[in-house]
Amino acid sequence: MNQDYIKPDAWSIVEEGFDKERIKSSESLFSIGNGAMGQRANFEENYSGGTFQGSYIAGVYYPDKTRVGWWKNGYPEYFAKVLNAPNWIGIEVVINGKQLDLNTCTSVQDFRRELNMKEGWYKRSFSAEMPSGEQISVVATRFLSLDLDELGAIKYEVTAINQDIEVTFRPYLDSGITNEDSNWDDKFWNTTAVSMDKDQGFIEAHTMKTEFATCTYMQTMVAYNGKAVISNSGNKTENLVSLAYDQQVSKGSSISLTKFGGYTVSRNHGKSELVATAKSILDKAMQIGFDGLLEKQKDAWAKIWKMSDITIAGDVKAQQGIRFNIFQLNQTYLGKDSRLNIGPKGFTGEKYGGSTYWDTEAYCLPFYMATKNQEVAWSLLEYRYHHLEKAIENAEKLGFSNGAALYPMVTMNGEECHNEWEITFEEIHRNGAIAFAIFNYHRYTGDYSYIPKMGLEVLIGIARFWHQRVNYSVDKEQYVMLGVTGPNEYENNVNNNWYTNYLAKWCIDYALEQLEVVKNHYPEDYLRIMTKTQLEDPETSDWAKVAGSMYFPFSDKHGVYLQQDGFLDKEMIKVPDLDKSERPINQKWSWDRILRSPYIKQADVLQGFYFFEDHFSNEALAKHFDFYEPFTVHESSLSPCVHSIQAAKLGRMEQAYTFYLRTSRLDLDDYNKEVEEGLHITSMAGTWMSIVEGFGGMRVAEDMLNFSPQIPTQWNSYTFRVNFRNQIVTITVTEETSSFEISEGEPLTIKVNGKNVVLVPGKTIEA
Amino acid sequence: MNQDYIKPDAWSIVEEGFDKERIKSSESLFSIGNGAMGQRANFEENYSGGTFQGSYIAGVYYPDKTRVGWWKNGYPEYFAKVLNAPNWIGIEVVINGKQLDLNTCTSVQDFRRELNMKEGWYKRSFSAEMPSGEQISVVATRFLSLDLDELGAIKYEVTAINQDIEVTFRPYLDSGITNEDSNWDDKFWNTTAVSMDKDQGFIEAHTMKTEFATCTYMQTMVAYNGKAVISNSGNKTENLVSLAYDQQVSKGSSISLTKFGGYTVSRNHGKSELVATAKSILDKAMQIGFDGLLEKQKDAWAKIWKMSDITIAGDVKAQQGIRFNIFQLNQTYLGKDSRLNIGPKGFTGEKYGGSTYWDTEAYCLPFYMATKNQEVAWSLLEYRYHHLEKAIENAEKLGFSNGAALYPMVTMNGEECHNEWEITFEEIHRNGAIAFAIFNYHRYTGDYSYIPKMGLEVLIGIARFWHQRVNYSVDKEQYVMLGVTGPNEYENNVNNNWYTNYLAKWCIDYALEQLEVVKNHYPEDYLRIMTKTQLEDPETSDWAKVAGSMYFPFSDKHGVYLQQDGFLDKEMIKVPDLDKSERPINQKWSWDRILRSPYIKQADVLQGFYFFEDHFSNEALAKHFDFYEPFTVHESSLSPCVHSIQAAKLGRMEQAYTFYLRTSRLDLDDYNKEVEEGLHITSMAGTWMSIVEGFGGMRVAEDMLNFSPQIPTQWNSYTFRVNFRNQIVTITVTEETSSFEISEGEPLTIKVNGKNVVLVPGKTIEA
């Protein structure tokens, strides 16, 4: 554990004390977002010390060009980058003619940050002494509105402590910003207009290449002693617009600036409407006012927590950790816009380009299914349906034909935008996760309608891909799949990765099954899809042949499926026997050494056992878990959750809890010394799964919710809520018992430890 | 075949006719070099059309920074680039005040280039009409002196055809040059001084980062009607120095400019001595004169040809092709400087960075051993000995220890400078080629002295590497080598590449043998080496254990060694059954598809059968040849030669000749449509091997030269010469017979078709 400066608190993230070394880490941890935009917790006032500036607009990216040693056919020409957007939060604060800058103040006292997760706001307060002796205190409160999701609000209050002072506020917008991560230091933004209108300012700028047009806007009000302070000047340059407010502030008195700001974007509005739309948002904001907006913010977050909160009694750090994870997932994605998805770092940094990975389907979907209405999960599925044509193009670039679809490893708009052959071309299991998500959605929601409407076409494209991707081995007399990278990215270009082979077979079987269902029950959809895809019988029989004769590497000696061909040739030294100085191996070893080692970055065979739990006995799970876990270094934040769930299933609660701890406070405690780059958003969903599916044992089987609750000995009790088919089920687990309740609606039959239990509204049932 | 504009000629490369589309190709084909520097056949006068400017100084490079998607530990920070050096050949030619520029002339007639390989010069001649109507003819002759290898010479003659004209010559030096291949458009050269002195000009410039200091220099003389024309002005700018000569030239008369120029470099002289050295070279040149230097050039090339010429009767294109190959190899490397080596493109382009690859040991060494004195081959070996420390460092970066050495895949100074993990970290067979070269040198020259002096240390470092690189497979109960790339780069990260495993075993065995020999016969060297390397017995026993129990993949069904584990799982469609539109696969297929295909880029298992011919029966060779060749696409220019030699050995002369043709005129006929990027220098040595080792059947065995000559039916006869232990042996093969002679020295016993034959000077023996 590398830091423990975050104060334990059930509902808030709190930092106390000013430490310049922590600025970038706290900028990540105190990030705010509303699904449509987000930003790092940069200071409003100037700061001359080290900082990582970031404000991000969902879906606005830049295709940065790339270059590699030897270009490979099929590589995309670019790597999509999430863009640091124009700064709208900036407020120059000038005390007696000198800039307030915490980096140069003589002293900074009572520095405190709070990210209030219950209500969805971020507050920073401090006292500071200027080099020229003036003492002031500041309270700055900020939030991004869930209600008006193109709007953010700031209240910035300055109090004169030891003398009368002249305060000048210069709130500004700035489009002269850059990305930390840029390959060629290209200019990403082009500013086309800078304007102001009384207390309002506007910058129109568009991204280069992608041509996303944006209006960054602001309106400010300053009040002193109950009276408005009038802006006395404004300033415009090529990339900047600022207003200025001067006021003498008496010792002991406070002056307050309220700033509304944000972005309107051509993704959502006509390009010529951006300024007008911004003005109408500002009108609404002015009508409602800062306090009114804050009230709405609290209500909106109350609704979110009502469906998704997890409480843990007896362990405040665990409580804080899980709420932080749930909070951040909700800040990142709310499912309102099916063109958006969940970037691994959300709106908290630039790394991973803000793009979509298989993380969404494999890890995030269960969280959103269980804590939102089903429309949100539908949106996530629809996102991939909209990208089906691009996935077919992507497969064509790699030599596939006839409508075979390969979804990209990393994408912003459906096109592949990553270029390392061993990942881009070979980590094809992502295709299977997308098919599995369709199955999972139907299993959880009971809603079959997605499949005839959209899903079946996706399943056909994916089945076609697998059918073309395998080949028949005369030597093995079975179908094999050569040259892939599995979820364990510490192996590249292996043959017969068990997980990928298993997924491929399952995808084909599932597609064939759904073809039958749709044919029999949705004949019109079937006809439309058959016409569109030109799928005919000889092809599906060929699919079936492949699925029926797929090769799975297996060791008779060990009684386990092998991660891939040749796995047993490795030097099988278990992780605990590896010198600690060698770890993490991805920082200590060259790539070839990692590849030839037995070490597993994240669950691979076990990922398959997680997805297809019903296909394997508990004995088989135990055998595979005991074989593979000792070689697993969990150097992906997505690894421990699967192991936690499986350890819980095997009744190994101590081990399950140990795995749970590895992700629940990964960012808060900065295990990997990299939190300053941003938060691990997608792995946060894994933490949620560890509790709900792991400790709570929640499954959906036979169209019913199932639970087999356990509790870590470190906890007194825990409670979680899930939305199952429009009923909110609350589950409370203590050492002694588990209790279940629903708040309204029809009676709901669930299974607890294999036995049916009928829940009726308002009644808590112990089971 | 893509071009046939090169006229067949036994001793010259000739182009006739002006075609702007061919400029870049001809710039490559007519390149000149003298081992110390080289240049593309760029025009002296201005040319505003498409051109690829290149003048290169041996050993002068730039470490261009690189960036890749995901950096891997152990990657070098840079990729070495051969540098386009300052231009010393430039001559502005001004006719009646207007620049001569063939791109804008009204007509260009009688355009002719000749690269005279026998005498080592390049001549260009043409008549042109200026847009303003003046008609002139030009003859420009150029060579880089073998005698004074820092010097080049140009004679540039202009004749007035249809009217009196005013000719202005402005010879210049220009250091404001760039590389075509630059990752970040960095500036590679920094000019520090520009000076002139009467008819001389000097530019001092050094490379960025590597700080190679150079003086580019020139001296010019202009003569008209037997009288010197005096320079009337000069001009200096930041990166340029030029002189100017004005002269009225009468219709029918000629004016001639002689320009001497070149580079002095801090690799060879003190930094403060560069200008003075240049002046003293110019003094020598002026004393000898252009014609005198040209005579010396002819003599020097006559000496080279005396030892290395191959004549082919009855096929002028074949004759031209083989001489072109021998000529270019000699232009690239002459073995005078053991800090230099043979870049795959020599001095003819920028691609492959001018760096050293395993091509040198595997393909070029046999050529240089047989056509030079043995000091040249010694220099090539010494080059690697000087890099041993760097090879040990390189291995340490990849986690090896205790003096294990991994030579770089690509290098300028011993450091690795390529960063693709599958090549840099995994194409480790290069280490074996370097050990094999030591064996090969001793076998051919009979000179053991390199081994105790230098070679044994190299062999120890290499043996240590292999010993550490393998691991014991409990499953196979043998040593395995996981995660390598063999010579067939169309497979990456495979397990148990047969060639690499075989080389590793052989390297260890050979090192152990040489340890014994040195111990017994060179006790002082042995003591020194043991002290330096700290090699002790338990370690060598461990080596022996590995060599004695190495795993080699073998197919009982096919009776062949497998290229790697799992090779038989591929879809085994032979190359002739592959649709032509799919080829070359490296241009048509994405990398993953290439990798999972059975297609072989260049000899892999067969490369091993070539190196270790004695270890396998002819039957085994035939079996492996017949198994692998049908899957070989020969998309490396290094592939056909090995197959040609082996086909000849199997008595399949038609097939051998077909393979031979694929490389002998690879560049002249531009098979791969890329000759404009430069020539394939290292594969030219393979062409030489195809004749000498393939058709001539030359081997060294039992300390004797062996021949088993055959002749392609397309030829009447062929003759080649080799220097075997300081005796020049001339071999002439006709359809009916083979004859052998030596010119001087002691009688020499050779074997022809297995029978001893004694050669005595001056007597031609038929056998």
UniProtKB/TrEMBL annotation, chains A, B:
Q: Name one GO biological process term.
A: carbohydrate metabolic process
Query: Which Pfam families would you find in this protein's record?
Result: Glyco_hydro_65C, Glyco_hydro_65m, Glyco_hydro_65N
Annotated Glycoside hydrolase family 65 N-terminal domain residues = 14-267
Q: Which GO terms describe its molecular function?
A: carbohydrate binding; glycosyltransferase activity; hydrolase activity, hydrolyzing O-glycosyl compounds
Enumerate the InterPro entries for this protein: 6-hairpin_glycosidase_sf (IPR008928), 6hp_glycosidase-like_sf (IPR012341), Gal_mutarotase_sf_dom (IPR011013), GH65_N (IPR037018), Glyco_hydro_65_C (IPR005194), Glyco_hydro_65_M (IPR005195), Glyco_hydro_65_N (IPR005196), Malt_Pase/Glycosyl_Hdrlase (IPR017045)
**Catalytic site:** E489
Matching NCBIfam families: PRK13807.1
**Which family does the record claim for this protein?**
Belongs to the glycosyl hydrolase 65 family.
Name of the protein this chain belongs to: Maltose phosphorylase
Organism of derivation: Flagellimonas flava
